Records
---
Amino acid sequence: MSSSVLELPETLRLESHPFARNQCTSTTTFSPGSTIISIPALVSVLLPASKGHRCDACNRRPSDQPLKRCTGCASYWYCDAACQIFHWKTEHRKMCKDYNAYCASPRFQSLQEHEKMDALLLSAFCAHMALLLEPDENPSVSTFLSLLPGPTEIEPPPRCGGYAFSADQLKSFYSRFGNNNFSMHSHFNVFGHGIFPLASRLFNHSCMPNAAAKYVLTSSQSVRMEVVALRKIMPGEEICVPYLDPALLQTRAQVFELTYGFTCKCTSCTFLGSVGRIPNPPKDGLELKSISTALEHFVREMGEVSVFQTGRSEGFPPQLLCVLHETFLCDLSERFSAASHEGLYDVALEAGTTLTALYRLIYPPNYPQIGMHLLEVAKTAWNYSVQTDPTDKALNNLAQEALTLARSILTVFGSEGDEYDGPLVEIQTLSNLLSPLD
Ligand SMILES: *[C@@H]1O[C@H](CO)[C@@H](O)[C@H](O)[C@H]1NC(C)=O
Ligand SMILES: *[C@@H]1O[C@H](CO)[C@@H](O)[C@H](O)[C@H]1NC(C)=O
Ligand SMILES: *[C@@H]1O[C@H](CO)[C@@H](O)[C@H](O)[C@H]1NC(C)=O
Ligand SMILES: [Zn+2]
Ligand SMILES: [Zn+2]
Ligand SMILES: [Zn+2]
């Protein structure tokens, strides 16, 4: 299939790549925060935890009114008639009658939770295909079929609804799901899985991505993915998004190999590959403390560009190698959330400050997770000052600084998902509580 079939905006170009299939490069300059492309879902499925809380058509969670049930199956929920009609025409008509029996069937029940999602996504995909008047003419479908299948062949799960697809066709669809499905999120809380063929076709992964995906929910429409520039992108630069959390410093390589069948060659992986063996972090509290202090110092002095972006390990202190062990980050975030949960805000703030430094080292600038974390740090500092001394200037300033940085980072990414709440709203609320910085 030739790439000329793809409908691309003029600002993007799909080029041949020295060793990969294609690369998507920019033909223009994108400023941080600009939308590179907006792509509708071909199909999407809600997680079980979101069923009944979000509309099955547009995936919104209305704040002002309860969802209405499909009277046919009583298992699908919608904002209103417009959403229901949209979903009926594009998918649900083929699934409504069989859905409950299917979900209760021993074959479906014997599947693991993630396999159930896969089975529902496959069912929704087949239903959607069966309802398209001319599936062969549909650009989203042909883009989906042009995607590379996953590295391993698995038998497709049972489906809901009766459609005329051959076993080979089903296998061919299903083999493209595993490495081409996206977790959709609202304020970084995952609510479902979706297939966005053009996004899969265009954007390769990087652990130091210059762009990231967010999800926009609009009444009686499919979810849209918006790919947002995290920093300035120059003409000719390849645009990459993260397929998984880059903070999985050790396990990510395995996932790339097993799920996507490639070895990542980004600057972050180059850096990690060049530092040699990564030791376990020390168990001793005092040693950990001194390493945390050294990490914070290193990041303060590092400037805007991290060694994870240059890919060069010269000058990286050997003493800090153990912070690159995944357990260091895990333990730190556990300590941060446990301590703030228990009201031990001083302990939490200490862990939170070290975690901020680690995030700035391993994530690209403006990465939304850094902003989300800084918002938590600001809340912790606020809680601490309420608990101890609300007039404490130092705590107030700490909260203000974290909040200012959180706002600038999260404004680049912009709001996603449900529009009536989310981190930008929380930042505004907390900002109103704090006194101005001095
Ligand atoms: C989505 O991809 C993950 C791997 O990243 C896989 O484990 C899961 O089964 C896939 N889900 C669907 C619905 O295909
Ligand atoms: C994505 O990039 C990796 C290297 O980082 C490469 O091995 C892989 O083939 C690329 N994938 C596609 C689909 O171009
Ligand atoms: C702040 O305090 C509130 C109320 O006690 C609590 O619910 C919240 O989890 C705390 N947040 C942080 C980040 O410490
Ligand atoms: Zn809706
Ligand atoms: Zn129904
Ligand atoms: Zn990488």
Note: The chain is about 40% helix and 10% strand.
---
Amino acid sequence: MNTTRSEGLFAAARRVIPGGVNSPARAYGSVGGTPRFIERGAGASFWDVDGNRYLDYVLSWGPLAVGHAHPAVVKAISQTASRGTSYGAPTATETELAELVVATFPAVDLVRLVNSGTEATMTAVRLARAFTGRTLILKFAGCYHGHADMFLVQAGSAVATLGLPDSPGVPAATTADTLVAPFNDLDNVASLFNDHADEIAAVIVEPVAGNMGVVPPRAGFLDGLQELCRSHGALFILDEVITGFRASPGGAQARWALEPDITCLGKVIGGGLPVGAYGGRRDVMETVAPVGAMYQAGTLSGNPLATSAGLATLHTLQEPGAFDRAESLAGRLASGLQTAAESAVLRLQTAHIGTILGFYFINDDAPPDATIHDYDTAREYADTDRYARFFHALLERGVYFAPSQFEAAFLSTVHTEADIDTTIEAAAAVMQTLRD
Ligand SMILES: *Cc1c(COP(=O)(O)O)cnc(C)c1O
């Protein structure tokens, strides 16, 4: 595969952009090699600058629920752009998108649009602190909530501890107010609530962990969290930036009958343009300025390009049968990969929830019953070297999975059964070569 032009562009980019990328995961750091520079996308595929075509399971890390350059989305964006891109004054489209969110998520009475998932989650925490008058927040190791300071804490040990920052530049004082528990470990959360009675403002969780690979919640975990929050006067923040419009048409909260106090959205609701949102209970949301005193603002928040792209995407996704088809493709791919791994005598752990898919290669020397259910087990049992070889071999065959074992794969309404079967065939051939 010729990648000459990507190599040239990457070299040029590195001269003026740190690492040549505007978001670290794009740099292929964990799999090695040259990131492909993309020229255009259509449907379920994109083409790099050397003319190579890839069937895309990254979909811009989730947002493109209806694929690349969907005609309805392109039309909405171009029609909007011809009338101007931003006014700094309200538009009807913002209300339309907010109405759609409120109609989709019964736990959301009021919603505020922002520009990214990071803005949504960081503001959700500020809001929870403002509403409860408390300071501590509790997150889970391996869950990602954007790059705001207070979230840049991952694992302590198996025993949750007060957080230490993962990144230089994050003051220890900031993360000292972030408690960290292992994902799927309700007892640990209960004991943190006992140790910090009346101090925890909120628990924030990815209902399906999608940033350490894909780890589904154990039965009762999410319910249990909600219950613990209720009984201790803390707010329950569901970070549905990935799972919103993906775990089910109504997100994880519809799938598992949850009633979060605050819901964070992003990715799909912008249809490939920068959007995020946080919303929830009326009394909580009325703490937000200008109704209440908690300040949050944004020059380009709710801008017409992003909101019209989001609306066109969601309307397309909500056409009868569309979501179900994409969901069934995720199942087809997961079971195809599983079968391929078995016939290559490789251990593979797959998960699919709605249109989200994950798969881990399990280390050969992991115990026979090893399963990945949290961050520690993901670090311990996932075979990142084998994943890197798998990734590159599939890339060569024109299939684009995420350049890291610890990311999710996504399906769209424009992937087809034939796409899935081609992918399984390619994966099966590659897996036969991964034994040693
Ligand atoms: C991507 C992501 C975010 C951050 O969203 P950005 O738009 O990248 O700022 C927050 N939470 C989760 C669960 C995410 O996957």
Note: The radius of gyration is 21 Å.
---
Amino acid sequence: MNRPAKSAGYVARTRPVVPPIYQSATFYLDDIAYKDIQGNGGLSEHWYSRFANPTVDAAAAEIAELEGAEAALMTASGMAAIATTLMTLLQGGRRVVSARQVYGDTRDLLVRDLPALGFDVTMVDAADLSEWRSAIAAAPTTIVYAETLSNPQLELTDLAAVAELAHQAGAKMVVDNTFATPYTVNPLRLGADIVVHSATKFLSGHSDVIAGAVVADRETVTEIQRRVITFGGCLDAHAAFLVWRGLQTFDVRMERAQATARALADRLRGNAEVVSVRYPGNGAMVAFTVRGGNDRALAVMRRLTVASEATSLGGVETLVSTPFNSSHFSLSAEELAAARIDAGMLRFSCGIENAEALIADVEQALATTSR
Ligand SMILES: *Cc1c(COP(=O)(O)O)cnc(C)c1O
């Protein structure tokens, strides 16, 4: 069988503009690799792709730069990024104080899985600083957890104030920046210690890959990398390539999607069929509540032809869902009310279609379902 020469010589005059997909599980060992394995746990050299892979590193470097961070690492999914980060930090303690308004599967991790493993989790209202203060003060706290923009209510947490409370208590602040994205905010600059991402969403931007990222200072990223190695949630090179490619148009996509989201929110505010509109002023997510509750929301969604009825967000195509029966299906009626997910709420992730066509589509769906 013909294999490429062992020396790097066969690529020396090849200088690709785009990172190659290193679809290789393993790499030739040499003295430099052995030295890194023995001295440093094999964290710096490329010798096995669960530890590190050049294509995966290329995607991580772009995300670190977007977040203004020293380092980043990629994971197999956003949930792998979140779970691996929390389990790493919980080796130094046992209590999490989290916003109540978080992504549905993050909520399951916090209220079901972490307590089953013996950890304490306290939940507070994301936007209520006094609740954060008393919960963090109530017992020794290891992790303070929030999303920059809560899902699906799009409420803002005062990240700087909560980070300060966390640090006073000796806790680390972890922020999920998937919804707001580094286009609108860099949580590390506001005091967060670690940022986690579902790179499945706006970062990659084409609804064609599942991926996650963890962003922090180098030492913290290395600690979490050790658990990506032992827990196994590494990203595949092919998926990393798609993330890297999507990132090349991140700013342009966000600029366009944000302009559309603003225009949609403005127009919906004037529509008599709409009870309330939630748009935080920037970003590409809009949530609004229609008259007539969940049945009406479902009817409106079914009439749309430009927007696609699908969960997830952050793609070039506008995606719409009703949280009660998709991302937050596991919540009871009381829990939905406590999380302020109103009956009749629709969540829009604006894509890059023609804004007028999208808005006209929503308006016709509202008009043709009104009694
Ligand atoms: C989608 C999402 C996740 C989970 O990411 P996956 O890539 O699907 O594992 C976590 N947090 C938020 C805010 C999300 O939207």
Note: The chain has a mean pLDDT of 94.
---
Amino acid sequence: MPVSPTDAFATRAIHAGQQPDQRTGAMAVPIYQTSTFAMDEVGVMKAGFDYSRAGNPTRTALQIALASLEGGRHAHAFASGMAAIDCLLRTLLRPGDHVILPADGYGGTYRMIDQFGVPWGISCTTVALDDLAAVRAAITPRTRLIWCETPTNPLLGVSDIAALAEIAHTAGAQLAVDNTFASPYLQTPLSLGADVVMHSTTKYLGGHSDVIGGALVTSDEELAEAFTDFVTTVGSGAAPFDAWLTLRGVKTLALRMERHCDNAERIAELLVGLPKVARVYYPGLPDDPGHAVAAKQMRRFGGMVSFTVVGGEEEAVKVCSRTRLFTLAESLGGVESLIEHPHLMTHASVADSVTAVPPDLIRLSVGLEDADDLAADLADALS
Ligand SMILES: *Cc1c(COP(=O)(O)O)cnc(C)c1O
């Protein structure tokens, strides 16, 4: 029996797209590690698959699950989050079009438009998306897309998805939301009016730091068809094994996100009380500037916490090498806790751009270890 859209999130995460194999009863979706598919006769496919660049049953299973979790009609799974962004930009934008980007957002998105979009005639403006008047002021007659990320990477800024959707639609533009930091468990942008949701499934959806992947989810038939044509032509869809690993992660997303949120709340509260910490960025803190909007549109506040330290860049770099359980590494959203210095690591390539981040900032991806152990580790590193 297929899963119903009215089933709860945790149920859909385990069953959507994941029925036991019809022929063998295999409980886990098989890894269809094949490039091509035998046909019954010329032009007649057995199950809608002819060549794995265009489509593969393991990828399809993941896509059904992702569409269900985001409450969208169509999902496309990609070889990376950046491949998903590339597909969206190249199917939606034409020379002369204008894009609004978050001033504080994933550096790779800015770099893609700056390095690869601008030479093809795309223009962009970066705006702090929590300032709705500034967003309205940045709209031009050629604005085709507002790209939103909330909470942002790495400053955990929160913007109002429903308000941005209205601004975009009034201007005849579309709203895309990078939902990587929240995951669909905490926030479903399509239900708030967004046209497309993008994920780096490398992060919370995969959840185990063992696979790179991306996704686009939409209920817009025209966009979905354009994404299908793009993936079929370019070949940037998720490979079978990568899709399988991601699907395996998706099954436990609800459980994992609850624990990520529990642990992050505990760590944010700890940091607020430490004398070496200058400022804590976490939308779950009642006095955080993004708290009210986050409380309105998110189920909980997520597993990412950023903070600045007293003593500037030098001290921030030292703290990053003093932790025992928080591993010094880029990326986020896995079971293990990570610590990093955005200015010199994840955001180094945008250090001289408008999306530069404070040099004394540290970003934590709070994992699923015991909360007492994590708190003790940070307290030691900041003592
Ligand atoms: C990691 C990340 C991306 C890029 O995804 P990849 O899977 O690394 O290609 C995009 N947006 C956000 C917010 C990310 O954290």
Note: The pocket of pyridoxal-5'-phosphate is lined by residues 80-82, 106, 108, 149, 153, 178, 180-181, 200, 202-203, 212, 214 (CB under 6 Å).
